[in-house]
Each structure stands twice: as structure tokens, then as C-alpha cells.
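Hello,

I think I submitted the 2,5-dihydroxybenzoic acid job twice by accident. Can you confirm which output corresponds to this input? Input:
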Amino acid sequence: MSTALGTMDDLPEDYRQDMAAAGVAPLWPMMRNVLPHGTPQPVTQSGSWQYQALRPLLLRAGELTPVEKAERRVLVLSDPGRGAGAMQATSSIYLGMQLLLPGETAPAHVHTPSAVRIMVEGQGAFTVVDGERLPMEPGDLVLTPGGEWHDHGHDGADPVVWLDALDLPLFVYLEGSYATEGPLQAQRNRPDASQVEYLAAGLAPSRGRSSARRYPMMRYPWERTEAALRAMAAYGDVAELDFVNPETGDDVLPTMGFTAMMLAAGEKVEPPIKSTSAAFHVVKGAGRSTVNGKVIEWSDKDTFTAPVFSEITHQAETEAFLIFVHDRPLQTKLGYYEERAR
Ligand code: GTQ
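Support: Only one job matched these inputs. Its output is below.
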């Protein structure tokens, strides 16, 4: 096994210039940068965002920038490891807090990345995806898969805020990110599929009559998620539930996965070290988490992140509900998802 690899300084200046002129570079001085031993060396650093600090900034954006001038009125949560202005929260996950004021409309568009909304505050907003009107109530998870037309509207009386999670960094990296704008969609006169075809877990439209869509259910109402977590906790099970496609049982999207978790007051959990990066959003409750030694105090509507291979501990002070976004679906497809004992 090689230990000390040759460096750039070992090479004569004229050879370095000739390589650069020929458009090549030696691998060996860079080998450990691109292939470090044992674990990756993430650029991402754990970040945390208190909702009480973001909320006034968002409302100010509402005064300063009309939605027509923004298309999407969003404050992006920038990874501290990449610095101010970073358009990503982890290597693969983009997070943004989006504000919609009463009566506003965010115009229809379609893009290659997928988006998921976790509703944070306010009543009366909705997203229309491929003609299906998806109501957005606090804690709801709403999917906007890549390639599906979507626009947002707001019939309520108070500002509405939600957290956007997108696989945008991947698409930017692949030079595959783009959007197309279009007219507002006509809405089908029918409640969304979570209230009709997929009203109950374990029941799906009869195979003879339906040909399942790729994304059959695009809204996961919070009250059902909370009830299911409470039932598991009441019987002593680890109260963690993955959001899945009700037809296939697969993760809801090809790249990003979403997991809801409940912690009882005082409960402490130490999950294994995972190869995924993650973002945690506190639906309600208070507690503290440690990410690679950094202590993050959290309460209602706060958000924090963890880079790949983080050592994470969660400790709830009150009963707490969190939803976390991770890239396990992508890593599983690429064949390298991994968990390690701590
Ligand atoms: O709501 O469609 O945070 O297109 C970033 C890009 C939200 C959206 C974002 C988007 C959207």
C-alpha cells in the first residue's frame, strides 16, 4: 500500500509547464483529494437555522419583492461549508424557505430537479401538480416530482411558509438543471389522491381498473403521519416511518428520501453512522442534537443539516416530531449506501 505519494513539488518546473500546456495533470499529487482513505472528506458542514430568525427575513422579502419579481420567493439555506450564497445545504440537498402571501400565485413551471414541500406555517395554500390541487396544511409533505408542471396559490388570510427540499445540486452538477414556464394549470374538480384512491394504507385502486401512475400520491397529510407515529411509539416500536409510493412501496422520489420520526419527551437516539447527508426539520417539539460534536438546540419549525458519515445524537426535551430528508434512494441506486456502527 502506498503511503506518501509524490507531490507537485517533486516534479521539475519545465515538466509541470509542459503538462499544463498539453491540458493534462498528474493524478498522484491529487489522489488523496479525490480518493481519501476510509471515508469521504465532506465539504459540507452541519448548519442550523432557527425559524424565529428566518421568519422576519422572509416577511421582509414579502414587502421588498413582489412574487411577480421573484417567480419563487425563497430564502435559500446555505451550507456553512460552502459559505454565503451557496445554493445548497448539503452535497445533494437544496433547502429553501418559501413565502406566499394571501392571494398570491407562484406561476406554473416545470423543471428537471424534483421538489418536496414540508409545510411550516399558515393555512389556505395549495400546489397544483399536473392539474391535481394539493392542499398544504402544516406538517404536510407535498411532492413535485421532476418533469411535473406545478404552480402554487394561496386562498387563506395569513402568510404561508413552507420548506422546499430539492435534488437541485445533483442536477446542477450534472449540468442537467433547467426549467420551462407556462400558463397556470386548469385544476381537476376532484380532491387529491390522498383523499380518494389512497385514503387508507394498504388499499390501492383495483388493478383491473387502474394503470398506476409513476407518482400516484403527491400529498402526505400530517395528521395521518402523526397518528401512525404515535401508534408505533405507544407499542414500544422505534417511531420512524419512511414516506413511500403507495403502489410500489418504493421511496417517493428516485433521489431523495423522507422519513418522519417521533421522540418521546426525554428520549435519546443514537442512529448508526450513515453514508447519506441529511436535513432535519422540526415539525413540533423541542430538544437538542449533536452532529459531529456540534450541539444544536432546536424547537418548532427549526431546520438543521448533517454531512455524510456524521455521528448524530438526538435528545428530545418535550415530545417531538421531525421529518428528515436524505439521499439514501440515490446512494442505494448507485450501490454505495452504507451504515456503520459508532
Ligand atoms: O417552488 O418550484 O425553492 O422551482 C426552488 C426552485 C422552489 C418551486 C425552490 C423552485 C421552487
